[in-house]
Design goal:
The protein is an alpha/beta fold and about 280 residues long. The chain starts with a helix and ends with a helix. The protein has eleven helices and seven strands.
Amino acid sequence: MNEVTKMKEISIEELKEKAIQLRKTALTMIYGAQSGHPGGSLSAADIMAALYFKEMNVDPHNPNWEDRDRFVLSKGHVCPIQYSALALRGFVPYETIYTLREYGSPFQGHPDMKKCKGIDISTGSLGQGLSCGVGMAIAGKRDFKDYRVFALVGDGECQEGQIWEAAQTAVKYQLDNLVVFVDNNRLQIDGFCDEIMPLQDLEKKFDAFGFETKRINGHSMEEIVETLDEVKVAKNGRPKCIICDTVKGKGVSFMEDVADWHGVAPNEEQYHQAMEEVAGGLR
């Protein structure tokens, strides 16, 4: 049995434990570097656990495998959570996580495909990652490949016009091999998204553009896995969008729903409290 197959057989409870490990690793990386983005990393942890430890066909021993599923972290500033997944999945040695944001490290402040194994595309400029995912999905269709493309975008990022240009293109080319996750934590760096630039109803917007759209609790592993199972078999010519209602800073009481934790590292006392709370699982 190869590692790709083994990951697909993981249970819901094991996935929840993986999400705990992802949160702890991301917090450790950010605390060690005294720099990074904890809030959005923690809100996306459950989605990332489901993708990297169950859903995606990837091979850590052959990260450039031609037929692998692709992942695009369009909200690239929350890369500590993706680095955590790559380290725990075996793409990179776990002990290297302590080099976050150091010169020469594979773990730069935004994902760098030239430095870190398992990164399919460098990202960071908000709004642009989804376009890269659309291009990958078009390539897969034209090359008659079965791989799928998963893209994670932020709700604040959906204020960018290029997101909707990419959405139009995905529908035009009938990219049912594209799955877009929206980490809908309602906050961006300066406060609540609806106060800064109201997004209206994202579910209806993606649906109006022609996506097959679903809305779930982004911290319910059961709902994430069930929804991924549903969209996997929907070969209907429509790209998929999963709106995930999440909480920024999820798992750490003093970070939850606080915009100030968008890009601030915890001090020693806060770090130890955060690790203790995360280890106890989600409330």
